[in-house]
């Protein structure tokens, strides 16, 4: 049975990585879970070898927001327990997001 997830903001994925669990693309699940954290402004992803890298960008340093992002990361890792993830939380701090992220696919931008 294929699961579907609603997404707030703007999902940018189209050329995303197609790791699936019950027919759900991992990028869609990541966006669904992490976009629920209001402080998340951007999400980028990239697969290199067997590792799936995810960069989550929040505007400013915020311990509570980081805790909520970590909870979302745990849900992603539970859903895709056969995938090796490397998550990073980046504080934008007024900088251009493109200067903060390694080459990766943007999969979410808060509207």
Please characterize this protein's 3D structure.
The chain has helices spanning 26-34, 63-79, and strands at residues 10-11, 20-21, 24-25, 40-48, 51-58, 84-91, 105-109. With 111 residues, the chain is α+β, with helices and mostly antiparallel strands. The protein has a single domain, classed as 2-Layer Sandwich (Alpha-Beta Plaits), CATH 3.30.70.1350. α1 packs antiparallel against α2. The protein is globular, with a radius of gyration of 13 Å.
What would the keywords be for this entry?
111 residues; alpha+beta; Alpha-Beta Plaits; 5-stranded mixed beta sheet; 2 helices; globular
Structure summary:
By secondary structure, this protein is α+β, with helices and mostly antiparallel strands.
List the helices and strands and how they pair.
Layout: E1 10-11, E2 20-21, E3 24-25, H1 26-34, E4 40-48, E5 51-58, H2 63-79, E6 84-91, E7 105-109
Parallel strand pairs: 5-6
Antiparallel strand pairs: 1-7, 2-3, 4-5, 4-7
Distance between the termini: 30 Å
Mean pLDDT: 81
| Major beta sheet, strand line-up | 1-7-4-5-6
Number of helical runs?
A: 2
Task: Please tell me the total number of domains.
Answer: 1
Structural class: alpha+beta
Helical amount: 10-25%
Characterize the overall form. globular
What's the gyration radius in Å? 13 Å
Q: SSE string, helix = H, strand = E?
A: EEEHEEHEE
Q: Which residues form runs of ≥5 with pLDDT under 50? A: 1-18
Enter the CATH topology name. Answer: Alpha-Beta Plaits
Please count the beta strands (DSSP E, at least 2 residues each). 7
Main sheet makeup: 5 strands, mixed
Measured by DSSP, the beta-strand proportion falls in 25-35%
CATH architecture group name: 2-Layer Sandwich
CATH homologous superfamily placement: Cation efflux protein, cytoplasmic domain
Name of the level-1 CATH class: Alpha Beta
